[in-house]
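Page header: ASSEMBLY MODEL / two components / 1049 residues total.
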Amino acid sequence: MTAPDKGFTLSPNPPQHALHLHRELNRVWANDRGWWGQITAVNHTTLGLRFMATALVFFAIGGVLAMMLRAQLATPAGVFLDTELYNQIFTMHGSIMMFLFAIPMLEGLGIWLLPKILGTRDMAFPRLTALGYWCYLFGGLIMLTALLFGVAPRDGWFMYTPLSGATHSPGINADIWLLGVTFVEISALAAAIEITVTILRQRPPGMTLTRMPLFAWYMLGTSVMMLVGFPPLILGSVLLEVERAFNWPFFEVARGGDPLLWQHLFWLFGHPEVYIIFLPAAGAISTIIPVMCRTQIVGYGAIVAAILALVFLSFGLWVHHMFTVGIPHMALAFFSAASALVAVPTAVQIFAWIGTMWRGQPQMHLPMLHIMGFFLTFVMGGLTGVMLAIVPFNWQAHDTAFVTAHLHYVLIGGFVFPMMAAASYWMPLISGRGRIKGLGEAAFWVILLGFHGTFFVMHLTGLVGMPRRIDTYPDNPEWIWLNLTSSIFSFVLTIGFALFAIDMVLQALLGPRTPRDPWKGQTLDWAMMRPTPSYTFASLSTRPLTPGQPAGEVALRLARGEGLLPGAPRGRREFLVTEIGTGRPDHVAILPGNTALPLAMSAMIGGFVLLMLAGLYILTPLALAGVGVLIWRWGRSLTTPHDHPPVSIAPELSLPVHHHSRATLVQSGIVCLLVANGTLFASLLFGLGFLTVVAPNWPAPLPLRGGMTEAILTVAAVGALALGSLAVRLRIGVVPAITGLAVNLLALALVATLAAMALHDPTNHARDALRAVLTGYAGLHVLMSAGFAGFVWQMALRGELSPNRPGVVANWRLVQDYTTVTAAIVALVVIWQGIAG
Amino acid sequence: MLVGCDGPLSTLSPAGPIAAEIAWLWWAMLAGAALLTLMVGVLVAMSFGRPRDIPERRWTVTLGVWFSIAVLSVVLATGLWLGERILPRDDGAVTVHAHGFQWGWRFTQPGADGQPVETLDTLYIPAGQPVDVLVTSGDVIHAFWVPRLAGKIDAIPGRENRLRLQADMPGRFDGVCAEFCGLGHAVMRFAVIAYPPDAPPEALTQLEGAPE
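Prediction written out in full:
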């Protein structure tokens, strides 16, 4: 073995009996038996597959809805669906495909694959994986149930206000969307947090960031975008739901709101969303092409730069969905340029992939066939995307079938084809079985024909004037043959997807057993035994694979325990945590085992959602209190009453367990959560600024309330929180904890007093509503900090705190400081508003 | 092919200079896109030869960065130039008002005597000269779109947007609401009648003398 380049060499552990290790590890890592075992499972392989399988079911449902749309549009005066139902179905088609298929699918792929490709044993927060899954499932089921009962959302997947507001959309249809999608988004945030932490902290020793497999880079880009991209949508949904439920105006013009605020928040999420979907697919392509061509990827550094550029640029072009709202042309030009510029990093990747094919010898296995489908489809979709970025053309094509065609080229070309390539590539690892020749190829050709037959003519349909979201067109006979063509081929496309599904099922059941590492893969996932064991690796890789080294070569050594941290001799789920930049071994994390806690938590959140939907607002605090209790239990199960000895990971290296580390995974996770939370807060401030400057009907009719007394109370509240930030930095013990608790509770009382004294009725005007939201945001965080302080106080009372185990206090400090800073900002904004008038 | 491009709502059979400019932009971009697709196709096809040494930077930097920036710059510059040309300007153009509601359009246009005339779902404009449409909405968001005369602009509550359109010849041009606006979205159609400036239609003259 050669030494890793960063100056630390880890020699192998002595070989053991592989079967013995397997049994020892399996006892610790396997799911519980039977149905209960499915409920308590937290394992990434189980949950990753379950995410992907559920996403495929939703894909099928979304596909059936699309068939109904195409059936309706096949003739100019279709009577298959009435308009109300048609509107529900196209809204649900888009919402399902985006939120219940694409996002969960890529989360599932990341969750299933990342620990394997990084050579670790599970995701950083297994219970969070399970929580995410249950939230996804329950949220999805709520939306499907609404569809069955004919009360599905009907305002388009983009939910533009005022159409989606209480006046124009009475009933619970819109609430189903706002609450259901937000419920599902909990899983997106959970996945984003743990994917980020897993990639940054769980790589093999010596795998610096610049030696990571490209798939990890792509998923890192994706997860960072999700952390920053989803909060604006979540904020928008919460505000709109509050407007609908409690009549607080945010988007209603008459009371100082602005429908454009919704569009900004929605597309601040909505455009990055497209790249959130594309990046994991591109990651799969970057992984598969070099293997299929038996060479190394061309331009690793250029691709990483392209990923970073995409992440950055994708947040600067949301306005290209809003070219027709009346923004001045020169301002549009900026977003037009940014939108076109995003094609540059995409082109870098495309040419790097083609260059890789030139350098190697492409072999037309099924994954490669799907990648050919990707090239054809995605390049065309990208080019129509550039066209749409050009403002004058957008003024014609916007909201026509041309855009429908474009987005399907990009999403099916850029996501579905690569996912099908990924499915046929990783199937041997999933099922341990190889393909039945012929069926997969047939499915591919039928899909390719059906897709282009459906959507290629749709460009023309749009250019000859057919708007989106119309159900009949009796006055436009010139659209008949175009629509009929699309409808016929759409059924061909569906047959193709059905063939693909049949192929997958047959392969899983009947396919011939494949040898280990059938493709000669270049990533550690192929260094696993098959079928995939629950613990992934019996021992962990001592270093990254060297370029050109087939992964299968190290499989036996790892299975015999010659790598790091072999087996499970302590009867605990353990893996190695490394430093972010260098990949230097830092500590050993002990993971929680199987538990039904995530299911209970998501059921409780689901209870909250259902109470909101039923309009039983008075009962919702009960559900929220239940969530609080479960969070407490979640945290309690992570505490330990005593010190733990260091763990030997290699003959010459012992590491502390995470209880004794200053930089735990949980801490990294909280940092990620606060980044997302900070984005939400920034979006809220953006909303306030936007309405203040842009919205009609400002300033608010009522002058602000409050004078010197309120100012003093505000300063006192922030001062109390600053004391909390000070207390958390003191010696660890009972006194600082109870001090922290006391000052937070004091601040909470002050915030409540201020809310009662200084706030107008929030239903008066958007200004008053936003001030109430800001105050509530600060209050909620003070409550969280108080909870953290109380938690630490409890630990101190039980003797669970020790200067050797600093973890929980460090976490409290992060939350406390965040609370202090955001509360101070809220105070400044409120006081500034008072001064500015 | 060109026959398939015709139609009362077709952006590809423009009836005025603004729509014509955008149609011209489309055909140019289509030609460019076809060439680029062909180029990528050929490059992919050529990869199926023998393995060969390739200069990495030529693929990632020269092709990936510089080539794409060059192409994009041309398209962007053209789009910007063209967009500026078709914007409404303060040149004293005839101004009409389009007010969208669920589900129809109320138009206000100058009558033969200069007094405003209100019509429902039919807008009258003089042919051969630019007309600015002030677009507003009374309820939800709609979009005013007459594909053969110009691009579209949204009708947003609380805002007034301005769109310039122009018809070369007298005639009838169809319009639709392009922004989804609820149950009546598909039927929220309207017509624009361009009339010879010296011969205003009856609709604009018969209301003469109506109370102010």
